[in-house]
From TrEMBL:
GO terms for cellular component: extracellular space. Belongs to the peptidase S8 family. PANTHER family: CEREVISIN-RELATED, PEPTIDASE S8. Keywords: ATP-binding, Hydrolase, Nucleotide-binding, Protease, Serine protease. Coiled coil: none annotated. GO terms for biological process: proteolysis. One of its GO terms (molecular function) is serine-type endopeptidase activity. This is S8 family serine peptidase. ATP binds at K47. Residues 121-246 form the Peptidase S8/S53 domain.
Length: 540
């Protein structure tokens, strides 16, 4: 037999044809059906629905309605009504995924096509369906009631305020899932008044609310997860035929159903931006476990950020703000006119979650620095003083110093000074022996240049040179070491803090009197040359 029971409702879901009764389940019948969609293509599918479609039922309908076409029209009208109700409920519930049915007019399955089609529409949309058990005080495990007896529906019995079965509540082994208060329940009535009512229809909204709370706290829970959580935490009231798993116990529910962990990290706009600093901000919100740590990644390359600051979280604010002064709290010292990137992060249960990457540009610097390398004076066979000048606009230079060596292409930084004054311009000079630690050879050409640093950028003057005086007739003496603790140190500078060798007690060495520096003699011993303290040397 083929029944076009959707023919009156083609705009909603195409045409559906029952082709074959395959078998019966605990809640209805299994049919092979074909669907004709808008394009006219037939798709063979399996559906589980409950309609009066056995031969006896159909014959009975034909007898009462007149002919097979009337039977088809009967199916179509009922299905149309259910589809309209489904669409209405879908629009009313919006994004909700919990529906509670409390229709007292639906009695036995044989009374009509049943709510099972409507409820299967809900199931197909991922909706948890909660239904009142009914108020006839009958065993519905022995006589099918829709929607309470449909597989997958959460069927709710009613209890009085003493947690005993309400006298009117239907019951049934394997049918009742849970119980809730359904006696003397207050609610709104038409005209703005209130009303007190009894019924399983008063109980089922309580259960819908519990399931909604569970799924709100755990967005990734399936309908089955939420139902199992509610049942496993319920307080047992006795017979499962009367009470199912019992009555919801919210205290147990909280302890047995941990809130699913979830954290949101928002990287916010940087503020207080200057040439050399900024403060970056973020906001954290979470579900479940409090985050253990928050911090920031930072750098001048969005593809290569480093973790520069972190904090342990020991408060329970939710949401909460986070911020870091990049200089004082993250150890980052910025340059003017540069773009930097940052990203906030948080760690929850060992898992790191990062926000989006944001950026800011430090204020431009109109500063300028001019460095001039001056001449060398006081040039001897082993020393000289070199000079330079610095002039600037904007930010004061942070440092000046000297590059020096025997090749213009290979000079080393040998002296530096931090600038703490505000003179502008100002002079720069270094005695190569005493201030730069450089001890020169006679008749040798040396190269040097002065540098300065402003806002992290180095500026150098021109490279210049000088040649030490020739000293072919330099005087030398032979001396020996005495009155030491065992040896006399040879130092690279006229200071005991720079030892490079030693002369044993009583040993002879060569002394260069023209290279004296205060109380320090220039000596040579076993190929090592440097400064030794003169009071431990006696000329022979």
């Amino acid at each position: 037999m083929e029944v076009n029971y959707y023919k009156r409702y083609e705009p909603i879901d195409g045409k559906w044809y029952i082709k074959e009764l395959l078998g019966e389940g605990s809640y209805g019948k299994v049919f092979r059906i074909e669907r004709e969609d808008i394009s006219g293509k037939y798709i063979s599918v399996l559906k589980i629905i409950s309609v009066p479609n056995s031969k006896t039922e159909v014959d009975s309908l034909k007898e009462s309605l007149g002919d097979e076409q009337s039977v088809s029209d009967y199916y179509g009208e009922i299905t149309k009504k259910l589809m309209q109700e489904f669409q209405l409920m879908s629009s009313l519930k919006g994004n909700s995924n919990i529906v509670s049915y409390e229709d007292h007019d639906i009695k036995q399955h044989e009374d009509g096509i049943g709510y099972d089609i409507l409820i299967r529409m809900e199931f197909s949309h991922g909706v948890t369906v909660v239904a009142a058990a009914g108020n006839d005080n009958v065993d519905i495990s022995k006589k099918f009631f829709s929607p309470a007896c449909i597989n997958g529906v959460v069927t709710v019995a009613a209890v009085a305020d003493n947690n005993q079965k309400a006298k009117f509540s239907n019951y049934g082994n394997g049918i009742i899932d849970i119980a809730a208060t359904g006696v003397k329940i207050g609610g709104a009535a038409r005209g703005g008044s209130t009303v007190t009512m009894n019924g399983t229809s008063m109980a089922s909204p309580h259960i819908a609310g519990v399931l909604a709370l569970i799924r709100s706290a755990n967005p990734n829970y399936s309908s089955t997860d939420a139902i199992n959580a509610m049942k496993s935490s319920a307080s047992n009231l006795g017979s499962s035929a009367y009470y199912g798993a019992g009555i919801p116990n919210l205290e147990n529910l909280v302890s047995k159903t941990p809130v699913e962990n979830n954290i949101t990290v928002n990287t916010l706009e940087a503020k207080k931006i200057s040439q050399t600093n900024a403060t970056v901000y973020g906001k954290i919100s979470y579900l479940g476990t409090r985050p253990s740590e928050v911090g920031i990644y930072f750098g001048n390359d969005s593809n290569n950020l480093n973790k520069v600051a972190s904090d342990k979280i020991n408060h329970n604010k939710n949401p909460f703000d986070m911020w870091y002064d990049l200089n004082s709290e993250a150890g980052q010292y910025l340059s003017a006119g540069r773009t930097y990137y940052y990203q906030c992060y948080a760690i929850q249960n060992g898992k790191e979650v990062r926000g989006s990457i944001s950026s800011f540009t430090t204020e431009s610097d109109n500063s300028g620095l001019s460095i001039s390398t001056g001449g060398a004076d006081s040039v001897t066979s082993n020393n000289a003083t070199v000079r330079g000048t610095a002039a600037y606009s904007g930010t004061r230079p942070s440092e000046v110093g000297l590059y020096f060596g025997t090749s213009p292409n290979n000079m080393n930084k040998v002296a530096r000074d931090t600038i703490s004054h505000n003179k502008n311009p100002f002079d720069i000079w270094y005695d190569l022996n005493s201030e730069a630690g450089q001890y020169l050879n006679a008749g040798t050409t040396y190269y040097y240049k002065v540098y300065g640093i402003q806002n992290g950028n180095e500026t150098c003057g021109d490279v210049k040179s000088f040649t030490t005086a020739s000293n072919a007739t330099e005087r030398t003496y032979t001396a020996y070491v005495f009155n030491t603790d065992g040896s006399l140190a040879i130092n690279s500078r006229p200071s005991k803090d720079y030892p490079i060798g030693a002369i044993p007690e009583g040993a002879s060495c060569t002394v260069y009197p023209d290279r004296m520096s205060g109380n320090w003699c220039w000596v040579e011993y076993n190929g090592i040359s440097g400064y030794s303290y003169k009071d431990y040397i006696i000329l022979q």
